[in-house]
Amino acid sequence: MEYQEQQPPPPQYVSEVNLAALLPEAVVDLPTFLKLRMDPSDNTFLLETSYELLSKAPERLSLFRQGLATGDYIALKHLAHREKGSASTLGFNRLANAMLRFEYASYLVIYQFIQPDAQQFSTLYYTIEREYSVLRDYLQKLFASQAHPAH
């Protein structure tokens, strides 16, 4: 069978309902991210805030692993909620959505709507880990010509 490039659907089949399914979610919502600059020609603040979030990723991932190991879903819910807010404020939508899914799953366990499912939480954890990695790669390419802020 010969490979054929997939073509987008004709415009009459595109609606708000299915548009999200047709477009991959952006790693970074650039309009939101770039609005954080005080001076449109200065990316210093963006570099510093991105670096701050990503430099704490190993510590945050460790806290997720500890919470999963001990079954502390209240701490996990709070951690995911806090990280969701940080990621969302910066326009890091995929990371924010991964945190939201983890937060919601923790909420469901806390209030006994579902039983803890190790496989489900493992998948959610690895999604967060992957999104940190994807975000790091994306931002490195975005700011390739600029130095990282001082530690």
From TrEMBL:
A GO biological process held by the record: phosphorelay signal transduction system
Record PTM Phosphohistidine, positions in chain: H81
Keyword terms: Phosphoprotein
SUPFAM superfamilies, sorted: Histidine-containing phosphotransfer domain, HPT domain (SSF47226)
Superkingdom of source: Eukaryota
UniProt entry tagged with the keyword Mitochondrion: no
Gene3D superfamilies: HPT domain
Residue span(s) of domain HPt: 42-142
Keyword Transport: no
Protein name: HPt domain-containing protein
